[in-house]
Amino acid sequence: MESLWNDSEAEAFQGDLGLRVYTSRLLGRDKTLVMHGGGNTSVKLRETSLTGKEEDILYVKGSGWDLETIAEAGFSPVKMAPLLELAKLAALSDAQMANELRCNLTRADAPMPSVEAILHAVLPYKYVDHTHADAFIAVSNSPDGEHVIRELYGDLVVVVPYIMPGFKLAHLVAQTFPTHVKKQTIGLALLHHGLFSFGQTAKESYERMIDLVNRAEQYLQQHNAWHIAFPAAPPLTETVALEIARVRKQLSDIAGYPMLLHMQRDDQTLAFATRADLRAVSQQGPATPDHVLRTKRLPLVGRDVHSFAAAYKQYFDHHVFRTRQHLTMLDAAPRVILDEEWGMSLVGRSMKDIAITNEIYRHTIDIILRATALGGWTALADGDIFDVEYWDLEQAKLNSAAQPPMFAGEIALVTGAASGIGRACAESLLARGAAVVGVDINPAIGETFKRPDFLGIQGDVGDENALLGALEAGVRHFGGLDMLILNAGVFPNSTPIDMLTLADWDRVMRVNLDANLVLLREAHALLKLAPNNGRVVIVASKNVPAPGKGQAAYSASKAALTQMGRVAALEWGADHIRVNIVHPNMVFDTALWTPELLHERAKSYGMTVHHYKTNNVLHSEVHSHDVGEVVAELCGPRFAKTTGAQIPIDGGNERVI
Ligand code: ZN
Question: 79, 528, 558, 613: which is the annotated catalytic residue?
């Protein structure tokens, strides 16, 4: 590991706090040091108050900020003097500590200071850095870890046995540090937890951290425990969508709300999941205690979700009894699943949560394998992990998250999602928290939405294999299917019946009708497993109730599709799957309608473009977005009792009314 300090980069950061921001970001840039809100840093500054009083202020990382992206506003200024007094107390409850930290801020709108604020205050150095470095944890969590750490660092660090983070840790360090510190001491080694370093400048403290981590890295290298090779994973060739959706349904039922299940099958995860000693190494605990909030204490090995939930309940009951606290159990669903065929799968309510869990567990795999190479992986006892998992302050962090959106944890598939109405449907579903699989013949579908909760798949809906492949890929990526939006279609050039060839007719039927039969047929089993019941919305056309000349094939295809949807509503009612139909008309903001074409059409009716676009009962223009919003709402709880309905979205049409 090398120092990332760069003089010209550092010049952009002004003053002591500015440099604190800079080196905090350097730590955050390296995921082997800290991940996702982990770790914390501080700087002590002397400031003059409005009334002229000089005082020492601790600028410590605020909760909710990530070191990689932290700014000056992310550091909470807390008065040092009261913190040093608090550290002397024999005990301080979480609620009391939170209250004291907030009451001693010098900026009312500052974020809540880190739970390690008092520890930062008692270390008598200007800059203090704290990480959960992979290399250090691998050494610390191996047999004889404490002995090795003491040998490795000597007087460079004060070794602190594991104790609950927060006040207890700060109190212990306040009491013991002064008697253990030596002239050459540059940090603390917190066994089973992480490292602290300190210094008089931002650069010194940061580079001391790098130095401390490097010593652990070198130790691993010397003991052939650094480089881990994974054999290449063979591809998963069979169809597994239905089995994945079944597991996801069980997970969601246990959690009490829909969850995404995201497969990450590659060299690293498959090699780990197929180890002969997988149960022994994976069923011990997380690498560092605060990972428990993202990964739960243990991953599920295999697919028996119910046994996992029963064991989790037992663990909870046991420790509630031990701690004699009144606690509410978190949901009992796993967040990481290790399976010898699937590799690793992550469970979460959003792809954002899943990305964090994924990164943390990949580092956990490396740490476990390195410690195993040193002779064995030994995590903290389950009681210590429980105390952090059910720590008031950590619970508060999770509970402060806003109410999840309408479709959190749910998955929709939209055909023809690269443009027009399909794109608008995907947008409206994403805006309500759904993960969306978009299928389109246009290769731009891959880039239609650049976000982790959208998966674009290029494919011709007229090709049965392409549809089957899209369903399989979508389920592997998100875990199942809750909503199906049948939108893709072709609108051929106007042709009177006496000129209509069978080939033209077939082409329209294949895309507008046959493709949707395949999708409905294949999606049915998946929709039956939707935790909040399956929903289908068919985008038909005004041409169904009010056909136009020259569009026999189009009108017939959409009418047949509508009729198929009505039959599906009848057949699938017993499975609680709702099927509804929308009939849009005069939607001009699609790829079909160029400004030239609009102009030409308007002129042929002797109208202005504006008049042409609003030539309906309500005199209002209909946008793709209007259709997308109705489609999304039809999938939502307000329409929970509606199936088989046909809704016009056309600004009002006299022939339809
Ligand atoms: Zn920590």
Answer: 558
